[in-house]
Automatic annotation (TrEMBL):
GO terms for cellular component: outer membrane-bounded periplasmic space. NCBIfam families: modA, PRK10677.1. It comes from Photobacterium aquae. Residues 1-24 form the signal peptide. InterPro entries: ModA, ModA/WtpA. This is Molybdenum ABC transporter substrate-binding protein.
Amino acid sequence: MKCGYVGKVLCVLGLGLASMVTQAAETVTVFAASSLTNALNEVAALYEKQAGVKARISYASSSTLARQIAQGAPADIYLSANERWMDYLQEIDTIQPKTRQLLLENHLVVVAPNDYPKDHIEVTADWDLDQALEGTRLAVGDPNHVPAGLYTKESFESLGLWQQALPLLAQANNVRSALLLVERKEAMLGVVYKTDAMISQKVKIVSELPDNSHSPISYPVAIVKDRDIDTVLGFYHFMLSKQAAEVFARYGFGEAH
């Protein structure tokens, strides 16, 4: 009788462990650039509803996430806001090269609080940035490692504005933090992705930076090395699907060419 009880306990424990293993197998861990937060959350919710697989998504700057993956962080999929950090992971053999795809594209814009006195600014070499900032700073992603900041530096260099802008920068850890500085009016102007500007109710776009003034803003995706299991592949392919593309498009992302 005692053995029977123990047997039942072991059986229950076994079923519980099996359930935990199944739940773990039905979860995909995604490391994604912070600019994708709203769109990718919706894509993940849609996939979970259809496939019953939950995506746990960690958002930060592409550089931060790439370094974490390089150090062994348990990511299944990496979605970067530029090619540079994906190149880095490929060079150190941390992603599956065959799964690397260009997923999305974006654009750079200058934003200001809704009550900023101007609705449009001509961003040229003659622009008096100091005056336009009204005693504040220009919010940007850190140009040393944040992709949005790197693109901003390229664009401003091309437009002949970088040396004027450099001492006026408020450098943020990621593009969403740069947007937040403008929303709070701690910076009267900021350079962010068009998709970030579109989701904010507190800022307006006052200028779009020319696409030919910087490298193409592309978002590559890849599966981390040895993580190409069925559950991960399922969500990876869903991100590349037409259904996901429609979600991304609603948030302002274009399909990569």
